[in-house]
Structures are given as structure tokens and as C-alpha cells.
């Protein structure tokens, strides 16, 4: 009997060790390439041209960042990215909370129709071209508001908030009503402060989506002064791709300069996300579960 | 009958012969109720208006798939052409190339990318040390938050002749000459699949881990007493408990077989690998946005979404048969 237990312990320990080793390899596979991008962005053009380093750069330099920051374009793009993300998130969360609060009241007239209309939008959409034609006829092409208005509403987020509001005890609303408060007052003064955790989760996912979104720009914006960072980075990538293909065996200098600029832009574009990442991490699980409850 | 009368909003009105109140009365009641609820209704109406404009008008706009729409037309004046656009699709070689690429990449993603998050989640779940667990989770979720543009830029750097990937292979002696595999069309499907797994596998574990956290620990204790090995416990306790979430995910993945990642394609596609990289989405984009053939592009998109809905329904039927007729959707 004792021998059996010991064998199991040994088996179990081998399992744990193997498991640990495999997971360490997984984290290395994720972290090393990212680390490589960061140190490459701080490398001189010469080091980039020669390559051949993984963990540490042979020659550090700030020239890539200097080149990027000297370009007025990046400041403009950064400004666009920040404003579209902040305005987009605040309006999206407020709009969805407002509709979700309304739909959380079971007694309202027409509720079945409203919900049915919403559910249909989760499964069917007009797709790329009809949406483009709509945006065009609304005059939103080459307008900053194309980042905000079409992104105001998502029925998925409405449902999540609606479920959250429903869990708030009715007594809160009733006592406020007795004190003579209207629905808008109750929503703004009682329910919004109460539902901050749910709204923060939605804000987080929506914010990452806004920051990372580039298709909206690609489809609807041709005015370069409205380009966010992602689109600017895309242009740099496309440009350096074409160059490197034309330059097979040709001038390596131009290629490495754009490469350095590209690397520095990648780091700058990602930095805000990486900075807020540890702060917002605790919302991930709650957020996924909010979504899962619905499914 | 009595019951029905009580359930109506005021409860005092007469009930018609077939259990319904006369239409006029119902409208009157509706208006009375609506006016009493106007404050709440005023919160919902903006959402409804939004849906009509931004969701239902584009759905109506799908009719251009059956029209010959040109820039000078409006949606209403464009002439109807019936199924002509769909007929052209059938003989469009480039479209079928895109279908082959989409399916190739999708099946690779389904074959590899579907299993890896499950395995990864089990591995993380089996970890004893809380701090290391937290660390692995933090690291593996991170790539999900990079945009495809950022990741595309990174991939181009990693795969360049002087980049990380070639350095590794050179030092391991796998290759003797550095080469940029992004320019090698034959490898594109693998690049698309593996980069997607690198980005999303960790994130894909969250839902599985949340489900696993709900498994009753006494199962494992009982299994341990019975002398079940760790792998046995995974096979007989963990996996069966994840059955419904796995089949739900599988249904969603199968219904998305014809969908593809447009961001990823646009950033990784170049003139060298286009033959293998063009997927349906990017083809719709190219036909519609670059070449301005709105009707044809819409027809392609519509056809593909109809097939996707059919796939969704079929996959749901099949898995519900396998799961003792319990439909997951």
C-alpha cells in the first residue's frame, strides 16, 4: 500500500515538473519575441542591418525614436488615437447603459419587439459594402465622427448591462420613486454609480477595440490628418514591405531606416496598452463571465 | 379567461371571444401605458433608432447584390439583375482561389488552434503554485491585446533575413541561408495559423479556466483515493465537465469556417504571397473598395454569410445529436 502511494507521488511529481517546464517554454515563446522587438527598436541602424542578436543589442541608440518623434505626423496620430478612444469609450458605455437600463424594466411596452430587433442584429449584418454606402450617404466619410457614431451601440454590451441592472434590488428604485425621483434621475444617480464594475469591464474591452481598430480608418478615411496610430503604422509597414521587395540586394540603408522607424512606432503604439494592462487585468475574468452568463 | 383578464395592464377590461381584447382598446391601452412610461421609453428609443439606421438599413442595402449598382445610381434607381451576380461568382476563378485559401487556413486553425487553448487551460489549471499560475496567465493573455497591425509589423521584423526567426534557425543549423518566409507563398497558411495561435491561444483559455474553477474538488479527491493518475483524472473528470463549453466553441468555430481575419490578411499579404493569402474577406474588400464593383462584392459577401448560417445550424444539429439531443445553442 505504501509503495503504491509513493509511486503515485512520484508520478504526480513528474507530471508537475513536466507541466511546469512546458509552461515555462510557452512563456518564453511569448516573451522573447516581444523583448526582441523592444531592444531592436532601441538599436542603431547599423545593428539592425547586421542583425544577429536575440536578447541584447550590440549597439543601442535612440535614433529610431528621434526620427519618429521628429515627424509631426506621429503626434497628430497619437492625438487622434487618444481622442477617438476616450470619446468613443465614454459615449459607447453611456449609450449602452442607457438602453440596457430601459430594457431591464420588464414592464415596459414593446419590450419583446425591442429585444427581438436587437437579437437579430447580433446574427445578421449588411456587411462591408452596404455599410460603406450607408456611411457615405450619411456624410461620415473623412469625418472624425465615423470613429464614434457607428461604434456607439452594441447589443451584446446592452444585454450584459441589462442583466447587471436587473440584479440590483427593486427596493432601491421603489424608495427613490416614493421620494419623487424620475427614471432618468434614478438611472443617473443610483444605477450608474452602482454598476461601475460592469461598465469598467465593457469600457476596457471597448477601449482596446477602439485603440487597435484600423479597419474603420482603412474603409472610411482618406484624410491623413485623421489617421490614428494603427493606420500610420500600417502605412509604414506597407511602405517598408514594398521597399524591401524592390531592394533585394539593393540599398540596405533605406531599408533599415524604415525598419527602425517601424519598430519604434510599434513600441509607441503598443505602450499605452501594456501600461494599463496590469491595472485592468482583474476585470478580464469578470468580463468573460459576464459574457458567458448570456450564452 | 379570468387569468388573462388579470394579466392585462389594468385588469378591468372585457376580454373578446377568442381571449383577445378588441384592437381599438388594445391600442388605447398601449398609448396610455406608453405615455406613463415615456421616461423609460426615451432611454430605449435612441437605441432603436440607432439599430434601424446602422443595422437594418445596411441589411436592406444587401439588395444591391441583386442589382447592377454603379456610382451614378442610387440604391433605388439601380436596375435589378436578379441572380446574375451570383452566376458570375460560380465561374470566378479568383473567388474560388480565395475560398480554397480561406478553408485551408480555417481548417488549420480548427485542427491546431482549437485544441491548444484546451490543453493550455488544463495545464494552467493543474499548476499548484499560485504565483506561477498568475504569471503564466498574465503573460499568455498579453498578445491578445496587440493589434494585428502591431503583430504584423512584428512578424515582418521577426521573419526578415536579419530577424529573430532566421537567427534562431541559423544557430540551430536548420537552414544555411537566411530567407524571408513571408515572401514564400507556400508557407503562408502556416504563418497565418501559427501567428493567430500565438496571439489568441492564451486568451482562449479564460473561459475554459472559468468553467474548470466550478468543478467540485471532491471528484478529484475521490479519484485520488481510487488511485487514478493525474492524466486519468484529466481525462475522466476535467474533460467531461468541459464538454458543453467545448461543443459550443466548436459550433462557433465551424460556423466561422468561411470567415477570416481581414486585419491579419491585409497586413501580412504582399505581392509575393497573394495567391495563397487572398481570403474571401479580403477579396470582397478588393472587389468592392478598390475596384468599386459594389454589387458583385456584396453578392460574394451575402453568399458566404448564407453558407455560414447553414454551417452554424448543421454544426448545432450534429453536436446536439452527439450530446444526447441537448442543443447547446
Automatic annotation (TrEMBL), chain A:
The residues that cross the membrane are 20-38, 74-101, 113-132, 144-165, 186-205, 261-280
The answer, when asked if Transmembrane is one of the entry's keywords, is yes
- Lineage: superkingdom: Bacteria
- Subcellular location, in the record's words? Cell membrane
Residues forming the ABC transmembrane type-1 domain are 78-280
Chief location of this protein within or outside the cell: membrane
Q: How does it sit in the membrane?
A: Multi-pass membrane protein
Q: Which UniProt keywords apply?
A: Cell membrane, Membrane, Transmembrane, Transmembrane helix, Transport
ATP-binding listed as a keyword: no
**What single Pfam family name could you report for this chain, choosing any that match?**
BPD_transp_1
**What does the sequence similarity comment in the record state about its family?**
Belongs to the binding-protein-dependent transport system permease family.
Q: Which PANTHER family match?
A: ABC TRANSPORTER PERMEASE PROTEIN MG189-RELATED-RELATED (PTHR43744), POLYGALACTURONAN_RHAMNOGALACTURONAN TRANSPORT SYSTEM PERMEASE PROTEIN YTCP (PTHR43744:SF9)
Protein's recorded name: Aldouronate transport system permease protein
Task: Give the organism the record lists.
Answer: Paenibacillus xylanexedens
Amino acid at each position: 500500500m505504501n509503495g503504491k502511494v509513493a509511486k503515485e507521488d512520484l508520478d504526480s511529481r513528474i507530471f508537475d515538473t513536466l507541466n511546469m517546464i512546458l509552461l515555462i517554454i510557452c512563456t518564453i515563446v511569448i516573451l522573447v519575441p516581444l523583448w526582441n522587438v523592444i531592444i531592436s527598436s532601441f538599436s542603431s541602424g547599423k545593428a539592425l542591418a547586421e542583425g544577429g542578436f536575440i536578447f541584447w543589442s550590440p549597439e543601442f541608440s535612440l535614433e529610431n525614436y528621434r526620427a519618429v518623434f521628429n515627424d509631426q505626423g506621429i503626434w497628430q496620430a497619437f492625438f487622434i488615437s487618444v481622442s477617438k478612444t476616450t470619446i468613443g469609450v465614454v459615449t459607447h458605455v453611456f449609450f449602452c447603459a442607457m438602453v440596457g437600463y430601459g430594457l431591464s424594466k420588464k414592464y415596459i411596452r414593446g419590450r419583446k419587439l425591442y429585444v427581438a430587433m436587437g437579437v437579430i442584429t447580433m446574427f445578421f449584418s449588411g456587411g462591408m459594402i452596404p455599410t460603406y454606402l450607408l456611411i457615405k450617404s450619411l456624410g461620415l466619410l473623412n469625418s472624425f465622427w465615423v470613429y464614434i457614431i457607428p461604434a456607439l451601440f452594441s447589443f451584446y454590451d446592452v444585454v450584459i448591462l441589462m442583466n447587471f441592472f436587473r440584479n440590483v434590488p427593486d427596493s432601491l428604485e421603489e424608495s427613490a420613486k416614493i421620494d419623487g425621483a424620475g427614471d432618468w434621475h434614478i438611472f443617473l444617480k443610483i444605477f450608474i454609480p452602482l454598476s461601475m464594475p460592469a461598465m469598467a469591464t465593457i469600457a476596457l474591452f471597448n477601449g482596446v477595440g477602439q485603440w487597435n481598430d484600423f479597419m474603420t480608418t482603412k474603409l472610411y478615411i482618406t484624410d491623413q490628418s485623421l489617421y490614428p496610430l494603427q493606420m500610420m503604422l500600417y502605412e509604414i509597414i506597407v511602405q517598408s514591405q514594398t521597399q524591401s521587395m524592390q531592394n533585394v540586394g539593393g540599398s540596405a540603408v533605406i531599408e533599415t531606416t524604415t525598419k527602425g522607424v517601424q519598430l519604434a512606432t510599434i513600441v509607441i503604439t503598443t505602450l499605452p496598452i501594456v501600461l494599463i494592462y496590469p491595472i485592468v487585468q482583474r476585470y478580464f475574468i469578470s468580463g468573460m463571465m459576464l459574457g458567458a452568463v448570456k450564452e | 379567461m379570468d387569468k388573462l383578464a388579470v394579466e392585462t395592464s389594468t385588469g378591468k377590461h372585457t376580454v373578446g371571444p377568442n381571449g383577445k381584447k378588441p384592437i381599438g382598446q388594445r391600442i388605447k391601452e398601449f398609448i396610455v401605458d406608453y405615455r406613463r412610461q415615456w421616461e423609460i421609453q426615451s432611454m430605449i428609443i435612441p437605441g432603436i433608432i440607432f439599430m434601424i439606421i446602422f443595422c437594418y438599413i445596411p441589411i436592406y442595402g444587401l439588395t444591391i447584390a441583386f442589382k447592377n449598382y454603379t456610382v451614378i445610381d442610387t440604391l433605388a434607381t439601380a436596375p435589378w439583375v436578379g441572380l446574375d451576380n451570383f452566376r458570375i461568382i460560380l465561374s470566378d476563378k479568383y473567388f474560388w482561389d480565395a475560398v480554397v485559401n480561406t478553408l485551408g487556413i480555417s481548417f488549420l486553425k480548427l485542427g491546431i488552434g482549437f485544441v491548444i487553448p484546451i490543453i493550455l487551460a488544463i495545464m494552467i489549471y493543474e499548476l499548484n503554485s499560485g504565483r506561477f499560475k498568475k504569471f503564466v496567465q498574465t503573460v499568455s493573455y498579453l498578445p491578445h491585446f496587440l493589434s494585428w497591425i502591431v503583430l504584423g509589423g512584428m512578424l515582418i521584423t521577426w521573419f526578415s533575413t536579419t530577424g529573430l526567426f532566421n537567427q534562431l534557425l541559423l544557430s540551430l543549423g536548420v537552414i544555411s541561408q537566411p530567407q524571408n518566409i513571408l515572401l514564400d507563398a507556400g508557407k503562408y497558411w502556416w504563418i497565418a495559423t501559427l501567428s493567430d495561435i500565438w496571439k489568441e491561444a492564451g486568451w482562449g483559455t479564460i473561459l475554459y479556466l472559468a468553467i474548470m474553477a466550478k468543478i467540485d474538488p471532491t471528484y478529484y479527491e475521490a479519484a485520488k483515493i481510487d488511485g487514478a493518475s493525474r492524466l486519468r483524472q484529466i481525462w475522466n473528470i476535467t474533460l467531461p465537465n468541459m464538454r458543453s463549453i467545448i461543443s459550443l466553441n466548436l459550433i462557433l468555430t465551424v460556423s466561422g469556417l468561411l470567415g477570416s481575419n481581414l486585419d491579419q490578411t491585409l497586413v501580412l499579404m504582399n505581392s509575393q504571397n497573394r495567391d495563397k493569402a487572398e481570403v474571401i474577406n479580403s477579396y470582397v474588400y478588393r472587389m468592392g473598395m478598390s475596384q468599386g464593383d459594389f454589387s458583385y462584392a456584396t453578392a460574394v459577401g451575402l453568399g458566404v454569410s448564407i453558407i455560414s448560417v447553414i454551417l452554424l445550424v448543421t454544426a448545432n444539429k450534429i453536436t446536439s445529436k452527439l450530446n444526447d439531443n441537448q442543443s447547446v445553442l
